[in-house]
Every structure is written in C-alpha cells, then in structure tokens.
Design a protein that fits this description.
The chain has 442 residues and is an alpha/beta fold. 38% of the residues lie in helices and 17% in strands. The chain is built from 13 helices and 16 strands. Helix 2 packs parallel to helix 3 and helix 5 packs parallel to helix 7. The longest helix has 30 residues. The radius of gyration is 24 Å and the shape is globular.
Length: 442
C-alpha cells in the first residue's frame, strides 16, 4: 500500500512538473512578438496554385520564427480567391490557370497544423487593375470608379494609367453594401479563420473623390451648399518649379474631417458585423505609417485620445474623434523606409515621396526608428506592428536584416511584404539574420 502511494506521489509530481513546464512554455510564447508574412494574391498566383507549395512555404516561414500567414484573397481587381456567389473568382492570372481547390481553406488547415495563425487579407476600396484594364470597374460596375480631380480636370481613375489601383468611392452605398456582404460571407464560410486584415480602406489620395455623389454627401454633412466646387476644397496651381501644388480653399479642413469620418464609420461598421458572426475573429488593418501626410487618403489611424489639431494645420479639433486605433485588434503599419535609424536619417536627410502623397516629405518620421517613436505618441497605449517592403532592399540586402531587427525591437511585431520578393531574390538568409537579431528566432 505504501509502495502504491509512493508511486502515486511520484506520478503526481511528474504530472505537476510537466504542467508547470507547459505553463512556462505558454507564457514564453505569449511574450513573443507577432511576426507576419504576407502572401500577395497576384504575385504568388502561379507559385501557390498547388497545396504542396503552400505547405512548403508555410513550413519555411514557421522555421524562421513567423507566427502569422496573411493571405490575400481579394486583390485589387475585386476578384476573390474563395468560393462565393457575391464576387467573381480569380481563376487565372497572366495566362496561368489555377486548378480548383480550396486555396484559403488549405492555408488555414496547414497553418494551424504548424501552429501558425492565418488571416485573410482583402483590398477594400478598390475594384480594378489599371495596368490590365481588369476588374469590377472595367466589367460590371464602372460607376464605382472614383472620380479624381487632377491638374487637367475631373476624370475617372481608370484613365490614370500611371496608377495601378482603380480605387472606388468610399461613400458609394452600393459598393459599401457589396464589400460588406463579401466580408461577412467570407467569415461565415471559414469559421476557423483567425482574423481579417483589411487593406486599402482609404481614398486613393488627395485627388479623390470629387464625384457628384461626394459633393452631395459633403453638403449634407456641412448642412449647406458648396458654392464653388472643387475650388472651395482646393485648387491646383503651377509653381515656379513647374510643379503643380495644392492651394487650400476655405472648406479644405472640413473636407479632410468629413473624409476621415467616412472611413471611421466604415471601420466601425465592419468590426461590428464580423464580430457578430465570429466574436473570436481578430479585426486587423494595414495602413501607411506616414501619418503627417496620410490625411490625404482620408484616414486617421491614431488613437482617439490624440489630438492632431495641436500638431498639424490640416486637422480640425473634431478630427480626433475619428481616430480608429481603438477599433483594431491587430494593427500593421508600413515602415517603408530605407533609412533605419534616426542617426542615419540625419546624415542622409532623404525626402520621401510615398505612393499616396501629393508631394515629398521629410523629417524623422521617415526612418524606421523615428517612425516607431512618433507612432508610440499618436497611438497612445495601442500596439502596432512595423511593416517592411522587401524590394526596397534588393540593392542592399544587409539592410533588410537591419530593418527586420529594428521593427521587431522598436514596434510590437513585424510584417514582411511580400514573400514573393524573398523568394525571387533568395533573401532567406537575410530574413533569418534579421529575425534572429530581433529576437524572433532563437
């Protein structure tokens, strides 16, 4: 009897030790910062057209310390990479036809087997690819295309062939209904999906949207007619350097405020609707980190506790009410800078002209370390994940490692965009070095 009791106590101790060990491991895993690898739909279309390829690359990123796979299932054409009656399915890209299989479902199944979280990424306020004249605004819904106000006048964004994204008007109720239905259908079909990552939840830029619909809705917001449209918003003026610059009108700041409200209202609505379907679903988004000029796309991703009107002349006191950081469970921002440290930036003093900017920008915002410091201030207690753009470092691969390290240390995680750049330039060693130096890989 005593021997049995002794054996029981030994067994109990072993079980307790095992339980304690498991708890320590679990706590350690919780402390690890998330590391996200993005899988673009179009760039990886042929490569990921076989389940074995998906298995290979998911296993590869897991071995390098990544915790999340972000899978693009609605590229900028508006087509989708999952079964739904609500949107056209992308079955071919650049002449390559994909065999029929559950693309996203396989990502989720294999990712979970490996211990990875899997998020579906969707490009939201866009529905066409201008380089290929392809997508919903080219086939079924030309009325969705944003009307842009350029120095040459008003035109559909589909006529701006230097821009690849045919963005839509964010206040078009028909489109908003469509994209919300697509998002909800996706969540219903994939109950094991860990999260959503919304991209391009914004206006195209300062030139958008100047349609009659936008004018009407803005006038409703103001409670009065706009006497001179678009001049009361802004005008294009040719400077001595033969470059067009914006001259703000009397309603410019209210226009900026109204656009930010439109994006805020949409984000709040989507969060409410998808969480009603799956309360455990993480609600995420990606935006550019260049906050001083990001107002040009109608987005205020800062905390609602931060008042930008004290720092910037484009913000009204009301603008802070449309800061949506508190709506986001996983926030990713693009620290797309080739200068890594503040010290390095002060030596180079680079001007940065991002895709969505109307003119070049400068200052310590525009290096990775400086960006992270500024983001801490405007986001208050809300966490953010620093994103990198791999193809910026083709000519200097060692800096790829450095920016991975800096984002892991200075932000609350890492997002790598995109796996295709790592594969095609064989930059796995640089990624591994950065992950190790940043503490994501032991």
């Amino acid at each position: 009897m005593r021997r049995i009791s002794l054996l029981f106590l030994v067994s109990l101790c072993i079980l307790l030790l095992g339980s304690c060990k498991g708890s320590v491991t679990s706590a350690s895993e919780k402390k690890m910062k998330p590391a996200l690898m993005w899988f673009d739909a179009e760039a990886n279309f042929a490569r990921l057209s076989n389940p074995d390829s998906i298995d290979y690359y998911l296993t590869k990123i897991k071995s390098l310390g990544f915790t999340h796979a972000i899978v693009d299932v609605r590229p900028i054409t508006g087509e989708v990479l999952f079964e739904t009656e609500l949107a056209p399915k992308m079955c071919e890209w650049k002449g390559y036809e994909r065999k029929d299989f559950d693309f996203l479902g396989h990502f989720i199944k294999k990712g979970h087997e490996l211990g990875l979280q899997v998020y579906a990424s969707l490009n939201v306020f866009v529905a066409g690819h201008n380089f290929f004249d392809r997508g919903q605004v080219y086939s079924d819904h030309p009325e969705w295309a944003s009307v842009v106000y350029t120095p040459k006048g008003m035109t559909s964004i589909t006529n701006e062939k230097q821009k690849y994204s045919a963005m839509v008007n964010p206040v078009d109720d028909d489109f908003r209904t469509h994209i919300l239905q697509v998002l909800k259908d996706l969540v219903k079909r994939y109950p094991d999906l860990d999260g959503l990552m919304l991209d391009r939840v914004r206006y195209d830029g300062i030139t958008a949207d100047f349609s009659d619909l936008s004018r009407q809705k803005f006038e409703t917001y103001l409670g009065k007619k706009v006497e001179h449209f678009p001049e009361d918003i802004f005008e294009w003026k040719l400077n001595g350097d033969k470059m067009y610059r914006i001259v703000r009108g009397k309603l410019f700041n209210q226009w900026i405020e109204w656009r930010a409200k439109n994006i805020y209202d949409f984000m709040a609505l989507v969060r409410k609707e998808v969480k009603a379907l799956n309360p455990n679903l993480f609600f995420g988004t990606y935006t550019g980190a260049w906050y001083p000029s990001y107002y040009e796309v109608g987005v205020n991703f800062a905390s609602c506790q931060y008042d930008p009107s004290k720092d910037y002349d484009w913000a009204t006191p009301v603008y802070k009410n449309y800061g949506y950081a508190e709506l986001i469970d996983l926030y990713v921002t693009g620290n797309y800078y080739t200068d890594i440290t503040i010290e390095e930036y002060k030596k180079t003093n680079h001007s940065v002209w991002n895709e969505t900017d109307s003119e070049a920008q400068s200052g310590t915002w525009y290096c990775v370390e400086g960006s992270c410091q500024h983001l801490r201030h405007i986001l208050k207690d809300n966490k953010f994940i620093g994103g990198i753009l791999v193809d910026q470092f083709y000519d200097n691969p060692s800096k790829l490692s450095a920016t991975i390290e800096m984002n892991l240390k200075a932000s609350d995680g890492l997002m790598v965009f995109d796996i295709v750049h790592v594969i095609e330039k064989n930059l796995w060693k640089e990624v591994e070095a950065g992950m190790r130096a940043g503490g994501a890989l032991k």
